Amino acid sequence: MRKIYLFSVWLLCCLNACIEDKGNYNYVPLEEVAISGLDDSYRFVLQKSQSITPKVITNIDESNLTYCWRIGPDTLCKTKDFNYTFTRIPVAVSSNPLTFEVRDMTTDVRYSKVMQVSVVSPFYSGWLMLTAQRDGKAALAFQSYEDEQMLYQDVYQEVNNEKLSGTPLMVKQLRYQDGITGAYMDRVSVFCKNGKSPELDGTSLVRCKYYEDEFKNESLHIDNITSEYYRNENALSVVSDGLVYGKVSGSMGSPDDAYYQYPFEGDERGYKVAPFLVKGAYTSYYFALDELNHRFVYYAATTLSSRVSSVVWNEEESVSGVDLYDVQGEMIWMGAILYDDDIYSIVLDKGVYVLRRMAIEWDGRAKLLACMELPAGVVCEGSCFALHPTSPYLFISNGNMLQAINLENLSAGAGAVNEIYRYEGEILAMHYAFDNSSKLDEFGIAIQTGENESALLIINPTLSSKGEIITRYDHVEGKVVSLYRVFTTDYYSIFYR
User: Fold this and answer.
1) Domains (ranges, CATH) in the chain?
2) What is the pLDDT of residues 236-250, one digit of tens each?
3) Its pTM surpasses 0.85
4) Element of type H or E holding 8
């Protein structure tokens, strides 16, 4: 039986081998697609039109081909030629490259070229200039250091497809710090009178929100904001009609959280502060002038339960002959200096400009270190102010003249005032940018060069230089009202590989 079984198996195999295969198979050769004319990597700049023209060599009919350019899952365009303007840095993981894909619709076969790509912003580093145009309306100019030194005359409109509303007031960089990761998030604050004041993404300058819409239950206009640095140890606050509103920072909140519904409480006298809130680098108190009660007030920067109250003065260590609790006049300017961490203010009282130098002690008490009536002609209506961060000098403009006051020699009166240089046009705005970790040390001034035109001058900040111009940028449209040097601690280019 075993032999019969084996014979049957052998016979069956032989019969199968002899059967003729009569199948009708039609093999169609696949057409090939060759992609050339592309680099292995590309660098794109936000807000700048980018074009790439690949070469596609194939015998396939053009009508049967489709094209696609993508970064990761995001499709950028579906044309053979790449024509695209990045308005934001794409959100994608670093393993996602730029891919060009050609698809044969007949066979669904796809051919692709993969490239490394970086998307960078021209707004990482440069000068923001808030200007008043011929009609008085606000516009935001930007002199880039990143994109071939390009000057954007109205970067807000170019990026956001809308004009700023109202008249210009102030522009500054605001750096948020995440309470959990410690990472920084850059924003730009643009304040306008009688209009909307937007906060912009610091990378793309895309509008994130309007400050006026951040308040709970009501919309308030913004007169000033406390700090360029919104860190874990302090709350961020703004002034609106003399009242102070705050929001928490770090892990307790985010940049886009609403401000606290109610303003900070005052004492039994109430308060109405001038639109200047200043904190020393190493203190946790903000100083302000209460123009309702003619006194300096302060509040803690670390909590939303802060109370605006009268400054407690260390009378024994303050200058004699000055009433510490009666400050008449209008606040013109106030600022803090890294050099000694003191706070300086200028108040106009009955036609006289009074300069005060103040310090905050560790226990919260304050000292008035100096009080000086500035000589006539040093300050005028429209004067600009800037503190030297590492030297005891306060820069003051008067028309086209740049001056510096020696803050360690205030007792000398007029002898403390140094004339530096007279420029060809009126000084419109000033900003001293300093960051030791980034090795940033730039002094920028804006001057009027025509009826509706300004120039940005980067000057040598030493007194011995006599106002030496290091770099000059002309043809800024409008009159500059406020300027600010923006920068990032880390370069945020995002690479896709």
Assistant:
1) 33-120 (2.60.40.10), 124-154+380-490 (no CATH)
2) 788 989 999 877 554
3) no
4) helix 2-18
